[in-house]
Design goal:
Radius of gyration: 19 Å
Distance between the termini: 24 Å
Mean pLDDT: 96
Structural class: alpha/beta
Shape: globular
Strand content: 15-25%
Order of helices and strands: EEEHEHEEHEHEHHEHEHEEEHHEHH
Number of strands: 14
Length: 335
């Protein structure tokens, strides 16, 4: 496939320009499936060679594995906007068996939650060393929320994140060490709550504003637009159900979700459009979405994602989905 230029969008009120199609680096680090070192290297290289200039990673992804390979892949590249996360420290200690099973091929470190000031500063310094770079552009507090931790534990961890954690991020931003701060989460509710505790440049929201679900348009997205907070959209396939799979939110999809995905796919098919192509392109109909970041486990998956991203989609598809009540009637659509 011939490479095509990728347009860029401004991230919120920052000066950062992100390629509309970014590189999400969780799946390639072995999330629920073993990925070879060869495939990781070539997934990253093929994406960057195709013009991707925004890369998002995290210490948690493969317990350091993702950052290790991302750093090697981007170190000699120019104009890359790099995002990573804080909120866990990697400890040299036994990894719980269930967690290790979720990340086959991961590095031998146990990720331990720490959203304190010292924890976030330590995480930032550790990430710089794993990546082997002298600049991280975007730093996000990772995986806060009741779905992640349960109500009681989240109450304590959220308080840590909004006090010490936020103080660390704000200091790094104020000093010019990083250019944007935010959250990297799966829950819109925690983003709304966080807006009462500081000034956030961006939220990386995974799976909550997609072709399948648009609830954030009624609360989070208007609040972000007013505050100048940009959105990075992770999980555009809703963890698989919009790419021909049967998983949603990292688990077996309920029947209602599968039925809705099948109904959307049927409308797409009537327009000669692949469901995954529609899923990739839909979120960019919202102006404050700066980039979508699907994951890829190999060069072949990266090229397939890019092909879907560049596929022509008639405007009538979006209007037909709206007419079939498969899109929220207030949701913006691509033009």
């Amino acid at each position: 496939m011939k490479n095509r230029p990728l347009s860029k969008r401004q991230l919120g009120n920052t000066t950062l320009q992100l390629s509309e199609f970014g590189l999400g680096c969780a799946a390639m680090a072995g999330n629920h499936r073993l990925v070879s070192n060869h495939d990781i290297r070539h997934a990253i290289k093929s994406g960057l060679d195709a013009g991707i200039e925004f890369v998002d990673t995290a210490p948690f992804y493969g317990f350091g594995r993702s950052e290790h390979f991302v750093g090697a892949g981007i170190r000699d590249r120019k104009n890359i906007v790099l995002s990573t996360k804080a909120g866990r420290l990697l400890k040299k200690e036994p990894i719980p068996a269930e967690l290790a099973a979720d990340w086959p091929g991961s590095f031998p470190f146990n990720p331990v939650y720490d959203y304190s000031y010292d924890g976030v500063m330590r995480s930032y310094e550790d990430s710089m060393q794993r990546l082997g770079v002298d600049k991280i552009n975007v730093l996000l507090l990772h995986d806060i929320g009741e779905m992640q931790h349960g109500p009681e534990l989240n109450k304590r961890l959220f308080a840590d994140a909004m006090s010490g954690g936020y103080k660390a991020l704000d200091e790094l931003r104020s000093s010019g060490e990083i250019e944007a701060i935010g959250l990297g989460v799966n829950e819109r509710e925690v983003c709304i709550a966080a807006m009462e505790h500081g000034q956030w440049d961006t939220f990386l929201l995974a799976g909550r504003y997609t072709l399948l679900e648009q609830t954030p348009i009624h609360d989070l997205l208007p609040a972000c637009e007013k505050a100048g907070t940009g959105i990075i959209l992770g999980g555009p396939y809703n963890s698989g159900v919009l790419a021909g799979g049967d998983t949603w939110n990292y688990a077996k999809a309920p029947e209602s979700v599968i039925q809705k995905a099948q109904a959307i796919a049927k409308v797409c098919e009537s327009h000669g459009v692949n469901l995954s192509a529609a899923a990739l392109q839909y979120p960019l109909g919202c102006d404050i979405v700066a980039s979508i970041i699907p994951g890829a486990r190999s060069e072949a998956e990266m090229m397939q994602n890019l092909e879907w991203f560049h596929s022509p989609i008639p405007a009538s598809l979006w209007s037909d989905l709206r007419n079939e009540k498969l899109l929220d009637e207030e949701a913006p659509i691509p033009t």
